[in-house]
Every structure is written in structure tokens, then in C-alpha cells.
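Review form for a predicted model. The reviewer records the input and the model, then writes brief findings.
Reviewer: anonymous (R2)
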Amino acid sequence: MTDLTPADEFAAFLARIRADPEVVGAILSGSRAKEGTATPHSDHDVYLVAADGAESSVAREVRRDARLDVSVMPLRDFRTHALPGSGTEWNRYAFAHAKVLKDTPDGLVADLVLANWHPRRPHGRRPRSSTAS
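Model under review:
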């Protein structure tokens, strides 16, 4: 068990994934992403987007506990995740208030998050971003 506070543990997680070149994107979802809905007991729901072919390496970050709920998918899968006809449409709302925590230099992950939530909306407005590193 760790002696870190939940905030410190999340900060360490962010530093680690932001420094990892195999993680091309990170998205915060759930109550921590939607202002006014998190409680002191809320976990951080995070989707990690791995470079294609690197998902098994990035899988070391997968967690499901009271502090972090981390899922990993390769970029090739994230490109169509939650879009109509993808089989994962049920997960579209996860991106309604999402915050991009890490993005590619060209903003691809933010564009895909926007497309996941607004599949017919033109790309032009990106979701809130904590940092686009």
C-alpha cells in the first residue's frame, strides 16, 4: 500500500504517462472530468491511448481500484471507439465531459474525443485540455 495521498498518486501517474512515448494520449472521464460531480471518494477514470503495437507495454498502467480506473487501447482502436456502428456506442457518454490529459503534437487525440462525442459535428472545437504534452 502506498503512503501517497490520492492527489499525489494521480500526479505521479500523470508524470509517468506524460513522459512515456508509448502513451500517445490520455483522457480523463467520469466525475473527475465533469465539474461539480466528483466527491472525495471519486476515482480517476482514465483512458490511455497507446501507440499502435505498444499496448502490451502500456498495459502495465491498467488499474481498477478506489483511486484509479485505467483502461488502455491502441490508437487504431481508439480512432473508432464509441462511434456509431463500432459496437462500442454504449461508451459515447464517457467522452461528454472528457478532459484530454496528454495529446499528440497535432491534437489528434482531442479531435478523436470530439468525434467520439459528436460524430457528425465538424472538428473545430476541441475538448478541454489540462495539458497537451
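Findings: The chain has four helices and five strands.
Further findings: The CA atoms of residues 107 and 132 lie 8 Å apart.
Recommendation: see findings above.
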